[in-house]
Design goal:
about 200 residues, alpha+beta, four-stranded antiparallel beta sheet, about 30% strand, globular, disordered N terminus
């Protein structure tokens, strides 16, 4: 019985050890695993006079995550959208959206597909990470299998992860992004982390 337990423990470890990162991939900087630090690097495909990234925080000052330079003559007063991208809950401070101004007209970007459209051509690594996040992938810089990248002229390649289950399991994915079209392709590289504990809250 003890031998069976040891074998069942070793097999996942052996499978994971076969997943190696090519030497030309670099580690993603730790700061880029948080969406709030990615927005300043967006280079929109279209020419907007002004744009800003907000949460649905009722406090106007706390709601702004990032804003481009705003001309003195431009004032935008728009109601909050009902939903946004990266929806975490229902209520205040639960989602993010973009409000842009083009030819004196305001435009919302309030779901994952609209965020991809706003990004357009993938100009840099932060844009590639944001794009991957719209498909549910996360960057885990504590492991190369979930926090590595390579940039080429036509494509950006990422190793990212998805989490599921309780106890939590993290699965590594190899991602290929077409820089011109934003098309994303992904391939699972297997589970690289499995927690021994389940920290879900106990229902009353």
């Amino acid at each position: 019985m003890k031998i069976i337990s040891i074998i069942s423990f070793l097999i996942p470890s052996l499978l994971l050890s076969q997943n190696t990162i090519p030497p030309d991939f670099k580690k993603i900087p730790d700061i880029l695993d948080t969406a709030e630090y990615l927005y300043p690097f967006i280079v929109p495909d279209k020419d907007y006079g002004y744009w800003r990234v907000l949460t649905n925080d009722p406090d106007p000052e706390k709601a702004v995550i990032y804003e481009s330079q705003m001309p003195d003559f431009m004032t935008i007063n728009e109601p909050l959208p009902e939903r946004g991208f990266f929806q975490k809950c229902i209520g205040e401070k639960c989602f993010t959206y973009i409000l842009a101004c083009k030819k004196d007209r305001s435009v919302y970007f309030s779901n994952e597909q609209q965020l991809r459209d706003f990004i357009g051509t993938v100009d840099n690594l932060p844009e590639a990470i944001l794009l991957a996040q719209t498909y549910g992938f996360k960057i885990d810089t504590s492991n190369k299998l979930s926090g590595s990248y390579k940039i080429e002229d036509k494509h950006i390649y990422l190793y990212a992860s998805k989490s599921k289950g309780c106890p939590e399991m993290k699965e590594s994915y190899f991602i290929k992004i077409n820089r011109k079209t934003g098309k994303l392709e992904s391939t699972s590289k297997g589970v690289y982390f499995k927690s021994e504990n389940c920290n879900q809250p106990i229902s009353q």
